[in-house]
Structures are given as structure tokens and as C-alpha cells.
Design brief:
The protein has a domain of 87 residues: Arc Repressor Mutant, subunit A (Orthogonal Bundle). The protein is 60% helix and 9% strand. It has a two-stranded antiparallel ribbon. 17% of the residues are buried. Pfam families: MarR. It comes from Ornithinimicrobium kibberense.
């Protein structure tokens, strides 16, 4: 009989939830090492991603707080609190939006860019270690499965699976 700690009898959803909890703890510990909360770290990485996308599209570099809120899936007020904390830490700056003088853009400061690179490097190392025992074909299959699950979860725009879900 499997013990309560034995995951072999858990459903796929329960296994994913258990992994998500483990990764949340790892992420929270990593954020704390940099003096950030997990939400602030996610916000910092999101500003970097949104800034890169804006530049690729030829737009002004930076991210509006409303775009950050949408990207993080939080209320605008929560995104403002994250932006305030990142600005107070010297990781982002608010700059006028050249396309709308009433709006401001969040841009990474030099310390913010440096921290983004360190966080990405650390995440990559942790991720590589987590799948180190998988063969390259198993890694590729895991990636395909995860992308499929993410796509199914995004089908309704709220991150909840729609395919195969009960009516």
C-alpha cells in the first residue's frame, strides 16, 4: 500500500498541483534572496518581457501599468503596488509615454536589467537541474505536453481548461 507521501496514486492534476507548489516555494526562496516578493519578481520579469515586445514592434520601450496588470492577471491597483515597490528598489523607472502624455511607461533601470539577467540565469540553472535525469527525447516530450496543457488552459482566456472540461 502506498504511503501518503507516495505520489504514484495521485491524479495528473494533483501531480501538477504538487509540482506547482514545489516550484512556488523554490521561486519564493529565489525572490527573497534578491530582496523581492514573488509578485515583485514576476512583475520585474514581466516589465522586461513587455519592454522587449514593445521594442520588437517598434513602439516606445516600456510597459504601462495597465498592460503589466493584464500580463500578470491582477487588478491594476495590485500592479501599481508592484510597480511602486520595484521603483522604490531602483529596479524600474517611470517615464512619460511619448504616445500619450497622460500615461507613463515602466522601464528597467541598469540595476533592474542586471537583476533580470541574474534571475533568468538562476531559473535556467534550476530548471536544467530539475530535468537533468530526463533523456533529450523525454525533455522534448515534456515540453510538448506542457505547451499543450498551457494552450488548453488559455482557450477561454482565463487560464482554465475548456477542452474536456465538464459542461
Amino acid at each position: 500500500m502506498p504511503s501518503l507521501a507516495d505520489p504514484s496514486d495521485l491524479s495528473e492534476v494533483d501531480l501538477l498541483l504538487r509540482l506547482a507548489r514545489r516550484w512556488r516555494r523554490v521561486g519564493a526562496d529565489a525572490a527573497a534572496r534578491h530582496g523581492l516578493t514573488p509578485h515583485q519578481e514576476r512583475g520585474l520579469l514581466a516589465v522586461a518581457r513587455l519592454t522587449r515586445r514593445a521594442a520588437e514592434r517598434g513602439g516606445p520601450p516600456g510597459a504601462r501599468v495597465s498592460t503589466l496588470a493584464e500580463h500578470l492577471g491582477v487588478a491594476p491597483r495590485s500592479a501599481t503596488e508592484v510597480a511602486d515597490a520595484l521603483e522604490a528598489a531602483g529596479l524600474v523607472a517611470r517615464t512619460p509615454d511619448p504616445s500619450d502624455r497622460r500615461a507613463v511607461l515602466l522601464t528597467l533601470t541598469n540595476p533592474g536589467r542586471s537583476l533580470v539577467e541574474r534571475v533568468r540565469d538562476e531559473r535556467r540553472a534550476v530548471g536544467d537541474a530539475a530535468v537533468a535525469d530526463l533523456s533529450p527525447p523525454d525533455r522534448a516530450q515534456l515540453r510538448r505536453i506542457l505547451l499543450t496543457l498551457l494552450a488548453a488552459g488559455d482557450a477561454d482566456g482565463r487560464g482554465t481548461p475548456t477542452r474536456g472540461a465538464p459542461p
